[in-house]
Amino acid sequence: MQPTQAPVVSLIRPPAGATADRFRVTAALVLAAAAGALAVFTERAPGSWLDLLLGPVPLLLALSAFVTAVLSARRPWRRPALLVWPEDGRLRVTPAPGFGWFVAGEILLLTGLTVPVVDGQMLHDPAASASYDFLDVGLAVLAAVLIVVLAAAVFQGRPRIDLAPAGIEVREPLGRRTVPWTALAPGTPARQPSARKLVLTVARPELVHRRGLVRRAPVLELTWLRVQPWFLTDVLRWYVDHPQERAALGTEAGNERLCRALGAR
Q1: Contact 115, 36 (CB under 8 A)
Q2: How far apart are CA 251 and CA 164, in angstroms?
């Protein structure tokens, strides 16, 4: 159910310290490393408790993490109307807690699927062919790369959106986009019915810069961001329509004027 207006709350807060997401992902990484070490350095009989630890347990933990992530992402219209002020000249939309749970689940899922295969068919099966061993190694390397990429995204504070005097900086897990304020059409973005994404009206696409594996469509994904959708829309439109305010973005005076303009306390 959509709200009639964005909630009026405290608008800008200083950045928090270490996030709970990092602890969740660190715990998942420790479990993944422990499972890998057990697979490589231990010998055991089939059906032992170590086999259970290497297979079903990570998968069950992954399922629990995914369920928590889905529950955390519910009711996006009730998310806080909140921007973080990390430093002068910058305002930030931070990741929602659900993203950390999602990444922890991905790490545990990859561990639960990969370690038993590599352990059972590559390390302890003398009859396995060389080609099959190669496939196992490739699977393990791919899983490790995905785990590193996902974990790095969390520790770098991605996904997030930074607002700077020059424009909107979108930091995604696999890349980033920069959308200058001058690239957006005046009077946009308008409030939209979707709480999961915000479509930007880009009048000058040649000004948009992309780096890494990011989508070309002018869409901001909001699923894993900790912000009320219409509130973010109103903030973006304020800076699109008030170019004289961009130089003061992320300053005490500029923050106060933004608060007054949006009716925040």
Answers
A1: yes
A2: 11
The token pair at 224 is: 């894993």
**Residue 112 is encoded by which pair of tokens?**
């639960």
| pLDDT given for residue 263 in this prediction | 80
The distance from CA 67 to its chain's CA centroid, rounded to whole angstroms, is 16
Task: Note the pLDDT tens digit of each residue in 232-265.
Answer: 999 999 999 999 999 999 999 999 999 999 886 5
**254: region left, alpha or beta (phi > 0 left; psi from -120 to 50 alpha):** alpha
For 106, the token pair is 């991905």
Mean pLDDT of the chain: 86
Q: So what's the pLDDT on residue 225?
A: 95
Instruction: Report the distance separating Cα 169 and Cα 174, nearest Å.
Output: 14
User: 223 and 239 in contact (C-beta within 8 Å)?
Assistant: no
CB-facing half-sphere around the CA of 66: CA atoms within 13 A = 11
